[in-house]
Design a protein that fits this description.
Helix content is 40%, strand content 22%. With 196 residues, it is an alpha+beta fold. It folds into 2 domains: 3-105, no CATH class; 133-186, no CATH class. A 5-stranded antiparallel β-sheet has the order 1-5-4-3-2, with helices on both faces. Strand 4 and strand 5 (92-101) form a beta hairpin.
Length: 196
């Protein structure tokens, strides 16, 4: 995420928790250094979930050592390291992810839950697009068509979820050849907003 975007987030009175990946070379390297010593850790949180024959252990560490990190990262207050281990009957895999945040909290539990929820939302969206809408099997690859169709899929998912459908497959089946229902879903107004 560009530094300009972070500045905009802060200037609009909001906070951020952003994953830093290896393509942000300088920040990524410094984050690894600043969060490597657990003696400097402000707080630690561990959670474990079991589902579909796999156990996932997540360890969240919070730091506030901003040494050698550019001040261009507006509002930066905390560094977070998340270690994730997934165990199945046949294998164990591990990964470490790094985050920056403008939230002035020392609670590893708070950061761990927000990061986990965001990952769940992303994962849920991509699974639906792949499994229910066959996005990975789509043959459309030229120009902007693939991106535009992906945006349309997002719109459809949002319309169904706004109308209370948890199962996108069920919602799709209900709307097939039912133009009246489809129009009703598109015109759904969850709240009356008053604009000054």
């Amino acid at each position: 995420m560009p530094k300009k975007t972070v500045k905009t987030i802060i200037n609009t009175g909001n906070d951020y928790i952003i994953q830093v990946k290896a393509n942000q070379k300088t920040l990524f390297k410094q984050l690894k250094i600043n969060s490597s010593d657990e003696k400097n850790c402000l707080d630690f949180f561990e959670s474990q979930t079991q589902a579909r024959g796999r156990t996932e252990i997540r360890k969240t560490f919070v730091y506030k050592d901003l040494t050698d990190i550019s001040s261009d990262w507006t509002g930066l207050k905390r560094l977070i390291r998340v270690e994730r281990t997934v165990k199945t009957k046949t294998k164990t895999s591990s990964e470490t992810a790094y985050y920056i945040s403008s939230v002035r909290s020392n609670s590893a539990s708070l950061f761990g839950k927000h990061i986990r929820n965001h990952w769940g939302i992303e994962n849920r969206l991509h699974w639906v697009k792949d499994v229910c809408m066959n996005e990975d099997k789509a043959k459309t690859i030229s120009g902007m068509a693939a991106e535009n169709i992906s945006i349309l899929r997002n719109i459809v998912i949002n319309i169904f979820r706004t109308n209370g459908y948890d199962s996108i497959k069920y919602a799709t089946e209900m709307c097939n050849n039912n133009l009246k229902l489809l129009i009703k879903l598109i015109n759904y107004k969850p709240m009356n907003y008053i604009i000054n």
